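Students often ask what a holo structure prediction actually looks like on paper. The answer is less mysterious than it sounds. You provide the chain, you provide the ligand, and the output is a string of discrete structure tokens encoding the 3D arrangement of the protein together with phenylalanine.
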Amino acid sequence: MSSSRGQWQSNMGFLLAAIGSAIGLGNVWRFSYMAHQYGGGAFLVPYIVALIVAGLPIILLEYGLGHQEKGSSPLSFRRIGPRYEWLGWWMPVVAMFGIMLYYSVIIGWCFNYLVYAITMAWGNDPQAFFFNDFLAISPSAAEIGGFRPQILMSTALCWFLCWLINFRDVRHGIEKASKIFMPSLLILTFILVGWTLTLDGAKEAIFSHYLSTDWSKINIFSADVASRINAREVWVAAFGQIFFTLSLGFGIMITYASYLPKQNNIGRNALITCIVNCCYSLIAGLTVFGVVGFMAKTQGLPFAEAIKGGPQLAFVIYPTAISLLPAYNHLFGILFFLILCIAGLTSGVSLIEAFTCSLTDKFNWPRKKVVTGVCGAGFMGSLIFTTNGGLYLLDIADHFITHYGLIVGGLLECLIIGWILKSATIRNHLNTSGSAIPLVWNFCVRYTTPVILLCLVYFSVTGDLQKNYGGYATPQLLMYGGGSLLLCGTVALAFTLYPWDKRKLQREHQPEEDDLLI
Ligand code: PHE
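The corresponding structure tokens follow.
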């Protein structure tokens, strides 16, 4: 007899799905830009420290909680205590309404550009093409304008593919797709990196801007006040990046671990997820720095002027570099955008899964209907980001959701697990199911990580109060930034208030065959 919940067919399937969620668009452009801005190789020090003191402890916490409670995040938190259920909802609701609605549109852009790469439709001026022809961007965030038909269609395609993958249970849907997508992603990335290294100017840029170190940028004890403040910002950014890149604070890893069999070395799985994800970022950084270096050299520009962050990196810099390549330009473009599409899709399905599983756990609705409803509603919700003003809205929503929604979720998560449920309970559970988690983990979950997250929230709040984020007008920031947080909070509250079926709250007996499925 199999469990009423889905279950991964193999540990490898689970790992590939979790790594698929972690490796996303952020590994390619967010990481590379940060590495450049915050001191090149020196950035790796705060990045690795953040990985060890926050990333690894929280991923273990999420895996441990999902595995112990065998539930999505609302169910798991509800079992800790009724008053914590709201946080359990907050995380997948933020994943779905705060992130996926715009993440799907960016994946849509990648689909569009995959097609454009075939003919290099961006022509001689990729910047004008991206902003004027493709987005037809409105003059300010106050004017959202009308829909962009090609973006609308590619966003619909993204939702359709996610629906297709999420429709069946995890074993036949996400696990199967991850087994195809993840190895392909790694192979394609290695090809792209190898190719990049052959470009003129690539190796020099990598050595002088990526692998070089500017220690002064990370020295928080510097005698100079200004550089001390800048260094503080670098450390905050590194922690934020670790959180985002490991998909923590969304309830995703809780849900994925709930599909694991009883005996499982979760400690090892957490370590592998972290290492593979971070190595992928480091490797993807090679291609980004190499390509920017090649473009800077060919155009005679200084490197610092050539590199850009966010969407511009993928949709302006890369197309420019692709057009300058000596041979096989189309192929290089297809390879790059295919990598983005795959990385984005495997993260997208995980965002949907966290929310879908929360609904099926609470309401007992059939999975297929829930997935269809969620994807249909999600597509409707993402329409606003397919307008002429979409890029502004997306930028504002992203800032507020990642700086507040995510970090506050993670902070509360640490406090509740560390102090209410007691981290020792999860550690005992993990150790009896086949892991060997050191005692210091308790300390991280109860003290180190919450203190660091509190600092992050403090720095974000003070930064945002000092000046309007991105120079946007206050009404737009309140409407789209504050509005998206408010929407998530209200939806989470509405789901929390709905009464549970009492049987659901009892811990399910795990079937015998679990033990065999390691
Ligand atoms: N981890 C993904 C990345 O680095 C982003 C992501 C965040 C995916 C949250 C799913 C959930 O791009």
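DSSP finds 20 helices and no strands in the chain.
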